[in-house]
């Protein structure tokens, strides 16, 4: 089993490297692999081509890797915490909560006459997304402690998303044209709008979220057997919930803030990792989900550029068949 996992991790690492190169090569203007190598290694390369590679396409590819890993790990943690194969940032309303926070900031700040500088905009967007995601996740977690029925929790998540959508529509109706346009573009989901200054905020936040998730690996394994078993084995359930909530807020909230609501990666990719590795141990599943998420979002980004479509549409087309398969396989959840 360890040999199989080592081989799969090697394959995923190679896939990330190959897709990273292809992602940089593909775009409105094709770039040869030789130019990509020269730009990345400091070799001889046309200045304009070097700028396109380093300042635009490499940045977008790095964001895809970070976002894919973040969403996949947050989905894995939520599926284990709620013991629900259909849990995920999008389904349980966490992404909607982050979206509401961003909507309040983007659409509400102009209504209040608050000026928006570049730094203020980045910090405000991230902070609003974190608060929104944390609020929704806390509510769902509190309800899940009292209600064990999976379908009730899923319906709660959908109701929360519907309520959030209604509030967002009210904000859109009242907002100025410029703010409304900015928000609508944000809702389409994009990996290419993150600037170098914003990446300096995104990367540490995602790395912090992933680091916290690593600290929760042991209690997550215990939670697979239920909370009572985890308690008898000495796990601090309250501390574990806090770690998972904090990690998921940082991961899903940060990605949603800067890339828009990207669906299905957090829901589908943990199942893909389980299928590939045939493991339930989070010591394997955590890095497996992160790497598989990075591969998936890089692939979706490449396809979205080739077809000139929002990345959100591609992730949905990738994730829906997997979700349908999960529902059919777990007939007892419906």
Description of the structure:
- The protein is mostly helical.
- The chain is built from 14 helices and no strands.
- Helix 1 runs parallel beside helix 13, helix 2 (33-41) crosses helix 3 and helix 12 (265-277) packs across helix 13 (282-307).
- The longest helix is centred in the first third of the chain and has 35 residues, at 47-81.
- The two termini are 33 Å apart.
Topology:
Layout: H1 2-25, H2 33-41, H3 47-81, H4 94-111, H5 118-146, H6 150-174, H7 177-187, H8 196-215, H9 217-223, H10 227-232, H11 237-259, H12 265-277, H13 282-307, H14 311-329
Helix pairs in contact: 1-3, 1-13, 2-3, 3-8, 3-11, 3-12, 3-13, 4-5, 4-6, 4-7, 4-11, 5-6, 5-11, 8-11, 12-13, 12-14, 13-14
Q: Write the element-wise H/E pattern from the N-terminal end onward.
A: HHHHHHHHHHHHHH
State the separation between the terminal residues, measured CA to CA: 33 Å
Number of helices, counting only DSSP H or I runs of 4 residues or more:
14
| Low-confidence sequence ranges | none
Structural class: mainly alpha
Number of distinct beta strands: 0
Helix content: over 70%
Instruction: Give the biggest beta sheet.
Output: none
Radius of gyration equals 20 Å
The chain-level mean pLDDT equals: 82
Gross geometry: globular
Q: What proportion strand? A: under 5%
Oligomerization state: single chain
Could you give a quick summary of the protein structure above?
With 334 residues, this protein is an all-alpha fold.
């Amino acid at each position: 089993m360890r040999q199989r996992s080592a081989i799969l991790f090697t394959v995923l690492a190679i896939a990330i490297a190959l897709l990273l190169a292809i992602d940089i090569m593909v775009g409105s203007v094709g770039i040869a692999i030789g130019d990509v190598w020269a730009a990345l290694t400091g070799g001889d390369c046309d200045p304009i081509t070097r700028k396109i590679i380093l300042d635009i396409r490499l940045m977008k590819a790095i964001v895809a890797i970070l976002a894919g890993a973040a969403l996949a790990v947050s989905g894995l943690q939520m599926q284990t915490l709620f013991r629900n194969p259909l849990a995920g940032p999008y389904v349980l309303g966490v992404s909607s909560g982050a979206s509401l926070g961003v909507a309040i900031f983007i659409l509400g700040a102009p209504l209040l006459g608050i000026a928006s500088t570049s730094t203020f905009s980045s910090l405000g967007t991230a902070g609003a997304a974190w608060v929104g995601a944390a609020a929704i996740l806390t509510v769902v977690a509190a309800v899940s402690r009292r209600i064990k029925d999976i379908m009730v929790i899923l319906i709660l998540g959908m109701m929360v998303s519907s309520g959030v959508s209604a509030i967002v529509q009210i904000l859109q109706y009242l907002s100025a044209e410029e703010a409304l346009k900015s928000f609508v573009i944000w809702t389409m989901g994009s990996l290419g709008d993150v600037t170098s200054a914003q990446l300096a905020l995104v990367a540490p936040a995602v790395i912090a979220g992933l680091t916290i998730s690593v600290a929760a690996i042991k209690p997550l394994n215990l939670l697979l057997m239920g909370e009572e078993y985890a308690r008898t084995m000495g796990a601090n359930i309250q501390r574990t919930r806090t770690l998972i909530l904090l990690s998921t807020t940082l991961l899903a909230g940060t990605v949603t803030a800067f890339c828009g609501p990207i669906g299905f990666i957090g829901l589908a990719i943990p199942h893909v990792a389980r299928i590939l590795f045939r493991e339930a141990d989070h010591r394997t599943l955590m890095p497996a989900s992160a790497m598989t998420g990075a591969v998936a979002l890089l692939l979706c980004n490449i396809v979205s550029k080739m077809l000139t479509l929002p990345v959100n549409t591609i992730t949905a087309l990738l994730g829906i068949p997997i979700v349908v398969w999960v529902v059919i396989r777990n007939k007892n959840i419906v």
